[in-house]
Amino acid sequence: MAKVYLVAAEPSGDLLAAEIVGALRDVDADIELAGIGGTALAAQGIDSPIDVTELSVVGLLEGLKIYRRVVELADLAAADIIRDAPDVVALVDSWGFTLRVAQRVRQHAPGIRLVKVVGPQVWATRPGRARTLAQTVDHLVCIHAMEAPFYAPFDLPVTVMGNPALSRGHQGDRGAGRACLDLAPDVPMLLVLPGSRRSEIENVAPELVKAAQLVKQTLPQTQIVFHPASNIRGQFMERFPEIEDWATVSPPNVDRYDIMAAGDYALACSGTVTSELAKQGVPFLVGYHTGWVTWALARFFLFKPTHITLLNIAADDTEVVPEFVQTKFRAEAMAATATEMLRDPHARSRQIAAQEKALSRMGEGNLDSASIAAKAILALT
Q1: Does residue 42 form part of some domain?
Q2: Rounded CA gap, 317 and 328, in Å?
Q3: Which domain covers residue 263, as residue numbers?
């Protein structure tokens, strides 16, 4: 009987890990599974022995603040893996944490095979990480075909699974989404996606909320709908206790794709959700802000592309989706763009067409990411 242990420290990795669990069970109903993760893995019946919620941070300084705790949790995770003695460990996303876990397992239990699912962005920052990863794990399951050549000099086997955000889920139902929001078909709707990490609720969400308020003041007939990620919903409501006085917060446990499809335009925190919005045919802008030290290092020393959104990078690093990042991350500017787009259906149509073209250039939307990852993992058992 195959025995697999999954490790996921952040919401996006937790969701992908849960999808991989489903795919593993489809192939081998008797597989034995354990893991570390969040609510998505728990919903699959895999209870995490440690709480990883505090690891959902972004930025150099933010990471340094919890560095000691990251090390402690990596030690605890590795110890639990070694006690469990699986055939394979799948380390999903979260480069810094999962690398530390992998290094500890490799040192103390070298017979356990290690698979990294979602590699570091060597194509955009720090290509030297390819060597580090190749020295630590037995296999990489990555998102983009363009990543594979970075690992060829180090003889690390690579499987390309495509973008999970494009292969998961389904096409949302606009009518169903509006029905669960009690919203008439012809009412303009601005959707706000404020992030999935605790740090994003503190650093990004306030400016998105302010931008949405400005849109509401200019276009009072527009319905503002906030859809916080389930893992930070409580924090979001605590941070903005009066938001339902002028906007709607989507009900818990609704179909996220129906909610997306219901929108006419969206304000989105940078992340996986941007590709999901594009797949649902919703035009949007991206907003993001992080610590200044982190930003300076990323912009001037680490990150090669001009833009941060994958759709824009895929479109030859041009701005298909408007980006309001760091110095440009201002509520007034975002509100002006959103207002203009809500007033102009032809402009929205043009952006949707450009987004669809960028999605096709990404070239990975037809792959079943979870199934491909599951098969690569099982091949090592």
Answers
A1: yes
A2: 18
A3: 174-362
Helix (H) or strand (E) holding 253: none
Q: What share of the chain is helix, strand, coil (3-state, %, to 5)?
A: 50, 15, 35
Q: How many CB atoms lie within 10 A of CB 349?
A: 12
Q: Supply the pLDDT for residue 302.
A: 43
Statement to judge: residues 101 and 197 lie in one domain: no
Q: CA-CA-CA-CA torsion for 372, 374, 376, 379, nearest 10 degrees?
A: -140
- Residue 168 Cα distances to 27, 243, 275, 277, angstroms: 18, 30, 11, 12
Task: Please report which residue ranges of 171-253 form alpha helices under DSSP H.
Answer: 174-180, 198-203, 205-218, 233-239
CB 96 within 8 A of CB 70: yes
| Contact present, 143 and 149 (Cβ < 8 Å) | no
Pair 23, 117 in one domain: yes
- Give the tokens for residue 18: 């849960």
CATH of the domain at 374: 3.40.50.2000
145 and 91 assigned to the same domain: yes
Q: Both 259 and 332 in a single domain? A: yes
- Same domain? For 250 and 356 the reply is yes
Q: What is the pTM of this model?
A: 0.72
Largest CA distance in the chain: 63
Pull the structure tokens for residue 202.
Answer: 């503190």
Residues 255, 12, 299, 309, CA torsion sign: negative
* 168 part of a folded domain: no
Tally of domains in the chain: 2
Sheet of strand 284-288, all strands in order from the earlier edge strand to the far edge: 248-249, 223-226, 189-193, 265-269, 284-288, 323-325
Q: Are 226 and 355 in a shared domain?
A: yes
- Closest CA relative to residue 187, chosen from 227, 229, 216, 228: 216
Report yes or no: 265 and 231 within 8 Å, Cβ to Cβ: no
Q: What is the mean pLDDT of each run of 10 residues along the chain (381 residues)?
A: 93 92 95 95 95 64 65 94 98 91 97 96 74 96 88 95 81 96 96 90 95 98 95 93 97 94 96 89 92 48 60 81 92 98 98 91 71 96 92
